[in-house]
User: Which sequence fits this backbone?
């Protein structure tokens, strides 16, 4: 009883003391951030238009595309192919022809997986600009900030002799292919190309960062910023953004681009349940990537594999000025900056693929090609393609997006000039009385 009274009294005193004491600060409860907005990967991206003619297209051009692709299959140039055109996000044509590979019974579909090779570059370029938006990297940062081996570069004069470069390579140089780097695999007989091949230019048993460090030990072809040359720039860029983001390239792309857009079939290496959908070429030349066997290399310049369904999401995001179905990947002003010509003045364009086209140029990851080569004032589409013939572009003037999928580098030149005819040959903008002139084809 006494113990009970003592406890009650003690409790009363404690309550009184607590009432008189200053209030303890309340801990702030952190708000749970809302889940990221993502596009549904199970909902098709391929929304079909009710009638192509209502959007300005003559189906005769698409019939020509089918005939051209069927002729390619009959001639043994390709096992199959896919051609897609959309306007305003509505698909006006999907032409599928043939099979996924030689002797393969599976037909080409929007779910067929293709090695898209250099169509990896626009994706890595967008990922880089995301890091620029986040303040994790600067366009004019010297890349030696992230990979110190690139400090104090030298330029090859010839016969083993070098001179100090005028300045170091920047992130902008990598994005615009003005770095002074080259592709050894496409220039194997030159002095510098031989150095690249010896350094591991086509090895897959090393990582992208290891390849970048090996390239850093080699001389440059020219002073950074002074010329355009297609190169390992995007591969080195992939290594740079791995360092800047603090995570592997595949994880970065998955987190920042593929998952938000619902691109669940786009990878550097395929899972076992995806491998049976891989398109294969009819050629004795082995592919540049071994996508069924996972290796350390994740090529930022050419290592991705994707479907038409997936890549269309990425292309539509670009058409949407950085957003797709409510998911913002980059800001409109960021994409606008990527579409400014970086080689218009003061840059040697001797090796630029389209120097014969007035008004053509290259931005931060995209080729900028006149819609009508006869009249550059009509505007440009932005584009890039892949080693085995895949291609995509976005025409912001006519609100058109297009994707072409095939898989044979030896035949890609046969189809490149046809692609523009298929897109524009039967297209009549509402503001004109006739079809738009066929545009030049992208690399």
Assistant:
């Amino acid at each position: 009883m006494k113990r009970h009274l003592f406890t009650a009294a003690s409790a009363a005193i404690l309550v009184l003391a607590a009432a008189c004491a200053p209030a303890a600060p309340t801990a702030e409860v952190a708000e749970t951030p809302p889940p990221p907005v993502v596009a549904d990967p199970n909902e098709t991206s391929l929304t079909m238009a009710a009638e192509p003619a209502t959007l300005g297209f003559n189906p005769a051009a698409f019939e020509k595309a089918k005939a051209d692709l069927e002729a390619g299959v009959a001639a043994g140039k390709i096992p199959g192919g896919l051609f897609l055109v959309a306007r305003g996000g509505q698909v006006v044509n999907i032409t599928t022809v043939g099979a996924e590979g030689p002797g393969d019974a599976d037909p080409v579909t929007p779910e067929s997986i293709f090695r898209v090779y250099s169509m990896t570059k626009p994706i890595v370029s967008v990922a880089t600009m995301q890091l620029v938006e986040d303040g994790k990297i600067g366009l004019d940062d010297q890349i030696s900030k992230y990979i110190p081996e690139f400090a104090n570069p030298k330029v090859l004069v010839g016969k083993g002799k070098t001179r100090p470069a005028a300045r170091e390579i920047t992130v902008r140089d990598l994005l615009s292919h003005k770095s002074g780097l080259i592709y050894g695999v496409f220039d194997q007989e030159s002095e510098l190309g031989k150095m690249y091949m010896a350094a591991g230019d086509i090895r897959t048993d090393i990582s992208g960062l290891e390849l970048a460090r090996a390239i850093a030990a080699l001389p440059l072809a020219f002073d950074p910023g002074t010329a355009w040359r297609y190169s390992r720039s995007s591969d080195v860029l992939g290594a740079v953004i791995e360092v800047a983001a603090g995570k592997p390239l595949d994880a970065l792309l998955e987190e920042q681009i593929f998952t938000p857009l619902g691109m669940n079939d786009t990878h550097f290496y395929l899972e076992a349940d995806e491998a049976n959908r891989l398109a294969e070429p009819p050629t004795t030349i082995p592919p540049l990537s071994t996508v069924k066997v996972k290796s350390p290399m994740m090529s930022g310049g050419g290592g991705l594999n994707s479907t038409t369904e997936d890549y269309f999401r990425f292309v539509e995001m670009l058409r949407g000025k950085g957003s797709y179905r409510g998911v913002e990947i980059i800001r409109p002003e960021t994409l606008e900056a990527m579409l400014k010509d970086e080689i218009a003045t003061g840059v040697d364009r001797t090796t630029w693929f389209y120097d014969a086209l007035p008004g053509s140029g290259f931005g931060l990851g995209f080729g900028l090609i006149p819609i009508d080569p006869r009249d550059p004032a009509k505007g440009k589409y932005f584009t890039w393609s892949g080693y085995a013939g895949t291609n995509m572009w976005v025409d912001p003037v006519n609100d058109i997006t297009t994707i072409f999928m095939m898989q044979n580098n030896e035949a890609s030149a046969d189809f490149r000039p046809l692609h523009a005819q298929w897109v524009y040959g039967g297209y009549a903008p509402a503001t004109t009385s006739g079809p738009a002139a066929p545009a030049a084809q992208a690399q």
User: Anything to note?
Assistant: Residues 1-27, 439-443 have pLDDT under 50 and may be disordered. The radius of gyration is 27 Å. The first helix runs from residue 2 to 20.
